[in-house]
Amino acid sequence: MKFDEILAGVGNILNGLGATIVLPFIIIIVGLVFGLKFSRAARSGLTIAIAFVGIGLTVGLLGSTVSAIGEAFADASGTGLRVMDIGWPAASALAFGSSVGYIIIPVGIVLNLVLVAVSVTNTLNIDLWNYWHMAFVGALVLFVTENFWMALFAALICFVIALFLADWSVPLVRRFFKLPGISIPHLQSAGYMLLAVPFAWVLRKIPGLSKLRLDPDTTRRRLGLLGEPMVLGFLIGLALALAARQDTVAALTTAVNIAATMLLIPRMVGILVEGLAPLADAASTFMSKRFAGREINIGLDAAVLIGNPAVIAGGLLMVPVEIALALALAPLGNGTLPFVDLADGPFVAALLAPLVAGDLLMIVILGAIVMGIGLMFATQLAPAITDMVRNSAAVDLPEGYSQFTVMSDGANPISYLFYYLYQTPAVVAIIVSLLFVGGLYILKEKFPLGERLLPIADPDAKPVSA
After folding, report:
1. How many H helices and E strands in the chain?
2. Is residue 36 part of a domain?
C-alpha cells in the first residue's frame, strides 16, 4: 500500500468516526503528554466532548431558525439573483471528497506538531473537522491547476495561515471573551477578521461612534430586563420574524428559539471551559518547565465564541443586512443570493465583535462591509464552484439556478486570493504564498491583535484606550 493511501485511510477513519468519538481520545493523549493523570485527562476529554455536543445542538437550533428567517426574506424580496448559495455542507463535502481532503487531517496534525516543536506557532489545533476549510482551498487549487502537489501545498499554506491568525488574535480572545489558553484557527472566521481589521481601525477612529456604547453589557445596565441576553434575543428574533412576514405562531416560535440559544450556548461554553481548564493549566506548567516564556494555546472551533451576546445579536442582525446587500450590489456585479449560509452570521461576527469591543452598531457596519466584499468574491468564484459541484456525486443541487457558490468559504478573502493566485505560474504562486505567510508571522509577533493593534481592555488590568 502506498504512503498516500495510508494517509487517506487514516483521514477517512478519523472523519468517519466523528468529533464526539475522536475528540475525547485526542484530549486524553494531549493531557497525558502535558502531565495530567489519566483520570483527570479522561474527565477533561469527556467533558469537552459533551460540551461540543451541547454547542452543536444549540448552534443547530440557531442555524435552522435563522435559515427559516433567511428563506422568508429571500422569498419576500423576489431577488432575481442567478447564483445560489448552497452553503458549507456542500463545501465541506467537496473538500473532504477531494484527493487533498482525504489526507488533510493526518498531514495537518503532523505539520502542526512540527511547527509547535520549532516554536513557529503556539496553537495546537485540535479542531480536526474544520480542517475542511483548508481542504476546500486545496480543492479549488486542484480545479485550477490539475496538480495534486500544488493543491496540497496550497492547503497546507492555508493551514499555517489559520495557525498564525489564531496566534495573532489570542489576546483578543483572552480579553474580550475571557477565554485564556484558547485560540481560534477557524479559517472562515479568522479570514473575515483579517479582512475586517483595517475597517475596524477606521470605525474606532470615527468621533462619537464608539461613545454610543451599544454593547450588550451597557444595554443591559441601561434597559434592565429588556437588556437581558435572552430577552434581547427574543425581541430581535421576533422583529426579524415579523419583518420576514412569518405568521404569529411561527414568529413567536422563532423568538423563543433565539432566546433559548442566547441562554443555552453560554452555558455550554461554560462546560467547555470547565473541561479545558485542567488541560490549559497542564500545558502552561509543561511549557514553563521546558520552554521559559512560551505558552501553548488549544485551537478550537469559532463555535466556542458565539455564546457571547454581542456575537449572537450581531450575527442575527446580519441576516436582513446580507439580503439587502445582495440586492443593492446587483447593479455592481453581485449575482449571489445568500441562502444556506445566512445561518453563519454568528460565525462571521465571532471575531469581528471583539475588534469593536462588542458594539452592536459597529459589528453590523463591519459585517456589512466584510460580507458586501464577500458577496462579490462568492459571485466571481461561482463558475468554478458550479463546475466542481456538478462533477461531484456528494452534492445535491437545487433546481432553478444556473450557477452555485458557497458563502462560507467562497466569500472568504483567503479562498478568493488563492483561487486567482494559483492561476499564475507555479513559481509565482509559491513565492507569493510564502511571502504572505512570512508577513503574517511578522504581524503576529510584532503587532498582537488586542494589544499593540486595536487594543481592548484586559479584564485583569485598567482599561486601555482605543
Report:
1. 18, 6
2. yes
